[in-house]
Design a protein that fits this description.
The complex is a heterodimer of chains A (113) and B (111). Chain A is mainly beta. Helix content of chain A is 0%, strand content 55%. In chain A, 36% of the residues are buried. Classes of the chains: A mainly beta (113), B mainly beta (111).
Amino acid sequence: DAGVIQSPRHEVTEMGQEVTLRCKPISGHDYLFWYRQTMMRGLELLIYFNNNVPIDDSGMPEDRFSAKMPNASFSTLKIQPSEPRDSAVYFCASSFGGSETQYFGPGTRLLVL
Amino acid sequence: EDQVTQSPEALRLQEGESSSLNCSYTVSGLRGLFWYRQDPGKGPEFLFTLYSAGEEKEKERLKATLTKKESFLHITAPKPEDSATYLCAANPSGSARQLTFGSGTQLTVLP
């Protein structure tokens, strides 16, 4: 299996622009997680889905962030409008129902100027 | 509040010099304790899951152990390729699938 796939790997944008990050989970996995990693705060869970349904979005920092999972093989995390403090590495992870083990993608490094 | 604390923040070892990394957790019940390895510019790579006090798991030069308050990652005769950041995470019993991560230990093994 190819593992969790994320795109783009790097994104540089200007403050106020919309940013869309994409994730393809491992085939057969029914849980999908979005994390943000910064030096100051480490790895933080933003939101997670089960069977394409958002279960807990309490980690989403504010209304500028939204996430969707239209089908079992695709999810997006959108930031609109973006701000410099959103600069971080965003990871997607997936797991299947029989295990709590999460498998991470390579991440998207976002820089908002 | 659930909390995971890792120490030390950074560790430099000579090749072959064994040591241990510590992960202390304060959570409302523990469903699982996870160790991950993260290389620069990459996502965390799963290493181990521990479920109950006294449990041990091994993989090559790494051995993870678990007590009721903390977990240790023992590294025996490390090699330069073991250099990475090691993250631990706790899955509290009341949190379904959420993992609470520690801030990591950055390990450097010098040849």
